[in-house]
Structure formats: structure tokens, C-alpha cells
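Margin note: ligand = zinc ion.
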Amino acid sequence: MRKIAKIILHCSATREGQAFTAKDIDRWHRRQGFQMIGYHYVILLDGTVEIGRPEEKPGAHTYGHNANSIGICYIGGLDQDGKPCDTRTPQQRQAMKQLIADLLRKFPNATVHGHREFANKDCPCFDVASPDE
Ligand SMILES: [Zn+2]
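Resulting structure:
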């Protein structure tokens, strides 16, 4: 297994209530020329966690930080007008918390970040330091 130093959170940058899945993102990313979906996990609106790229493989989600990280994406991140917004459903928040806890047990030295710490973007559209607000 590669060394995991970071868990990096993303949104799919799709509008609130639109029920996309890992399969959709896989299609979008392949169309962009990736081998397959760039994220390791996708959290659906109902809190279901879908597996994307296998953990052993480096992801394609955060420029310069893919080699030693796990990428998690929740579906949403834009309001009805297409503006950045924390659209996470209660089920997504719960699932995200659980998934991060599971990953931190597996990779105890990893730290948790939002994509926007590494890029000039709004992603994941919430403050990772205070995820419950
Ligand atoms: Zn992102």
C-alpha cells in the first residue's frame, strides 16, 4: 500500500438535489482523459458510500497531492443557481464523518483537508476545520 498522508475532501460541483453517482463521475473523468474516476470514494445524497478508484492507486483529484492522498467526493456543492454552497444532506454529513473515522483508523498519521487548501477553488464548499457547521 502506498503511504497515505492526507485525506482530501471534494464536492462534485453539481447542483443541490441532483442525484449523481460514482458511475456518472467515472464517465465524466474518462471523458476528460483519465483512466477512470479520480476519487477513491463518493458519498451519495442518501449517505451511500460508493467506491471509486481503488485505494492502492493514486487518485486524480488534487494537483500535486495525488501520490500520498485519498480523495473523497460528496455529490453536490452548488446551490440551485450554481453558486458554491454546502449542500451536504444530514446523511452525507454522517457518512462523511464515518468514512473519515474509518480511514483515520487505517491511516492514523493522515490529516484531513479540503481541496481549496491546495487550489484556488471553492471545493469542497465547506470549512473542513469545522465540518459540522
Ligand atoms: Zn475538488
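The first helix runs from residue 22 to 31.
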